[in-house]
Design a protein that fits this description.
The protein has 259 residues and is mainly α. It has one domain: Fumarate Reductase Cytochrome B subunit, CATH 1.20.950. Helices cover 66% and strands 0% of the residues. It is built from eleven helices and no strands. It is elongated, with a radius of gyration of 24 Å.
């Protein structure tokens, strides 16, 4: 019954669609059911000093990696051919940009994970999901940097083109997409597998706040035009300022009832 079963088909042919389905439906369900949990649950107020550098390094690195993967994997190969961009040049760009970004993200992730595990105030407010997803991201970054050892052996861009063909075949519903990565190095396979696992966990962890980062500009530009959020630096209480204003205007407003 299982004589012709291939684990590669399940991991790289079926799992991508499972991950994308859970990612989309899980995000929608969480927003509809628990909209007030749609946040990053930042611990900045508890301990800011040890957060700032780790957060900057991690976010700058991970955002660079995200858009680098997005553009690198989903740019059609024919576009490179049309623009006469050598595959080797694109591979070098990926190494020279992705390498430093990966190191920065890994250092930042290490600092944030260490802070979350060793600071008593942060540890007590962290859930198991917080620690698990932080650990998985750290592992994914480390494995991503390890794949550089294999990438440097294929600087002609041949391996990069294979991953481009796989990712683009997945989104175009090509059932044989998995065949293109069946014999790549196991580090690449593990990197893809962990990426799909993180994608499936996305709606159920603090990562869901990333949606807000993409949606916020459209929300305020398209659905809340005319609104501006302002944080006042005034030190006098609002009630005291209201009374002073009424006095200048020559009339008094009713007292605000005490709660």
């Amino acid at each position: 019954m299982f004589a012709n079963f291939d684990i590669n088909f399940m991991l790289f042919g079926v799992m991508p669609y499972v991950a994308l389905t859970v990612f989309l439906l899980g995000s929608i369900a969480r927003y509809e059911r628990d909209p007030f949990t749609w946040k990053s649950s930042s611990s900045q107020l508890l301990r800011r000093k040890h957060l700032i550098w780790g957060s900057i390094l991690f976010h700058v690195g991970i955002i660079t990696l995200f858009f680098g993967h997005l553009i690198g994997l989903f740019t059609p190969v024919w576009v490179l051919d049309m623009l006469a961009i050598p595959y080797g040049l694109k591979q070098w760009m990926a190494v020279l940009i992705g390498g430093p970004a990966g190191v920065a993200a890994l250092i930042g992730s290490t600092m944030l994970l260490h802070r979350r595990l060793t600071d008593p105030r942060i540890r007590v407010t962290s859930t198991h999901a917080d620690i698990a997803i932080a650990g998985l991201i750290w592992l994914q970054l480390a494995i991503g940097l390890l794949t550089m050892t294999q990438t440097l052996q294929h600087m002609d861009g041949s391996e990069m083109v294979r991953f481009m063909m796989w990712s683009q075949s997945v989104v175009t519903w090509n059932i044989n997409a998995w065949v293109t990565v069946v014999d790549v190095h196991w580090l690449y396979k593990l990197h893809i597998f962990l990426g799909l696992v993180i994608t499936m966990l996305f709606p159920f962890t603090r990562l869901v706040h990333i949606w807000s980062g993409f949606a916020a500009p459209f929300r305020y530009l398209l659905t809340r035009s005319g609104f501006q959020i302002v944080r006042s630096r005034r030190s006098r209480p609002l009630e005291e300022r209201r009374r002073a204003f009424d006095k200048r205007q020559g009339h008094s407003a009713p007292e605000t009832p005490a709660e």
